[in-house]
Amino acid sequence: MNSYTATASALQKSLNLALPPIAVSISDEVPEGVPDYDGRAPAGCLFWQEAAKGPFATRTTHHELCAIGVYTHNMANPPASYEAELGDVLKTMSGMDYVREQDVMEIPVLENETKHVIYAPLDKTPLEPAVVLLFAHSGQSLVITEAVQQVEPAVPPAMGRPACAVVPQTVKSGRAALSLGCCGARAYLDTLTDDVALWALPGDKVNLYAARIDTLARANAVLGEFHSLRRKDVEAGLEPTVVESLSRLKN
Fold first, then answer.
1. Which of 5, 218, 225, 243 is 20 to 30 Å from the Cα of 125, by its Cα?
2. Half-sphere exposure of 39 (CA within 13 A, CB side)
3. 130/43 Cα distance (integer angstroms)
4. Residue 237 Ramachandran class (φ > 0 left, ψ -120 to 50 alpha, else beta)
5. DSSP secondary-structure letter at 121?
6. Per-residue pLDDT tens digits for 44-76
7. Where are the beta strands (DSSP E) in 155-251?
8. 2 φ, ψ to 5°?
9. Is the link from the previous residue into 108 a cis peptide, with omega within 30 of 0?
10. Which uninterrupted H or E stretch holds 149?
11. CB 203: neighbour CB atoms within 10 A?
12. Burial bucket for residue 241 (CB in 10 Å: 0-12, 13-18, 19+)
């Protein structure tokens, strides 16, 4: 059990998440007892889904099949082929007018060189997370958005491609961000279905978000029932006051 066990449980219960909250930690060293990722990943975003199974560590060699991910995470000691690979990816995207030169300059990138990225379920993370990821549908996102606006307070940005940029965006800003994913992430991650998006919360404030999410999830449940009952009454030809609707809710 770590210091995030209760927070992870609260987030899971309040939001009824299909995938547990995922901790993303950045470290110069791999914590004792944490294994290296066993396998080959076509893109670093796959690690978010894989982390639900348990903690593991990654280094540049685990990320190198995705030049964009190596770029956004500023991975240390990229292979000799990296520059050419990144150039080819950007050239292909530019040729489709998918990514323009000015767009590349706006993509968030981690400022410091990254030696290792440790992924784990939040309740099993061996390190303080830089970012906590939540896979959420629109109903869950409603609650998260309301919580973010109260904790920060600010309206969180909604980001598109590349999905992995949500990590440096959150690390650099110290604020939560929503990623709608990208076509690559949606191809590689089974959990990132058409009705799901990705939230990134700053790890050092995750307890604050969890507390507000719990309160707001309860409030949304009550208010949702209030509005459902009110709709039924109006559709039945009644004209209830708010007080009458509240009275019915209590009964």
1. 218
2. 9
3. 20
4. left
5. E
6. 999 999 999 999 999 999 998 898 899 899 999
7. 158-159, 177-179, 197-202
8. -115, 180
9. no
10. helix 138-151
11. 22
12. exposed
pTM for this predicted structure: 0.91
User: What whole-number distance in Å separates Cα of residue 134 and Cα of residue 154?
Assistant: 19
> Which neighbouring-strand residues pair with 156?
none
227 has a pLDDT exceeding 70:
yes
Cα end-to-end distance, the chain, whole Å: 41
| Identity of the amino acid at 99 | V
Specify the length of the chain in residues: 251
As a whole number of Å, the CA-based R_g of the chain is 21
Cross-strand partners of 178: 158, 199
Residues β-bridged to residue 209: none
User: Where is pLDDT greater, at 230 or 174?
Assistant: 174
Q: Any idea what the Cα angle at residue 39 is, between residues 38 and 41, rounded to 5°?
A: 130
Percent above pLDDT 70 for the chain: 99
Query: Whose CA is closest to 149, among 129, 106, 178, 169?
Result: 178
Token readout for 137 is: 């549908």
